[in-house]
UniProtKB/TrEMBL annotation:
InterPro entries: 23S_rRNA-intervening_sequence, 23S_rRNA_IVS_sf. This is Four helix bundle protein. It comes from the Bacteria. SUPFAM superfamilies: IVS-encoded protein-like.
Length: 119
């Protein structure tokens, strides 16, 4: 976990990677309930998909393909927020849950800005 929120990596590929890693740890340590099991699977998939699609965007064959991949990044970040909000975190996990929601929201805004500038 990044101790200071201001120390976020400038490299968006690294930032999305760290976001996925933190999300995996968060979801891994949720209480073992039936709802949390499914929520964790979905949350891990969507948080990892943010970075994976960003890598795909960087290798895009056209501007249209790039914009499509960035839109998917934004969509996956938004979906991750949903799974984070839906998860049943313990009191000790609430701070990390909030930090991850903030990070996913910031990533969504960054991708939205990239989409707007790519038009």
């Amino acid at each position: 976990m990044l101790e200071n929120q201001k120390e976020k990596p400038y490299d968006l590929e690294e930032r999305t990677f760290l976001f996925a890693k933190r999300s995996i740890v968060y979801f891994k340590f949720l209480s073992r309930s039936l709802p949390n099991a499914e929520i964790s699977r979905q949350g891990i998939r969507s948080s990892g998909s943010v970075g994976a699609n960003f890598i795909e965007a960087n290798e895009a064959l056209s501007r249209k393909d790039f914009v499509l991949r960035i839109k998917i990044c934004r969509k996956e970040a938004k979906e991750t927020i949903y799974w984070l909000r839906l998860s049943e975190s313990s009191e000790t996990q609430e701070k990390e849950q909030k930090c991850l929601i903030i990070e996913a929201t910031e990533l969504m805004k960054i991708f939205g800005s990239i989409i707007e500038k790519s038009k």
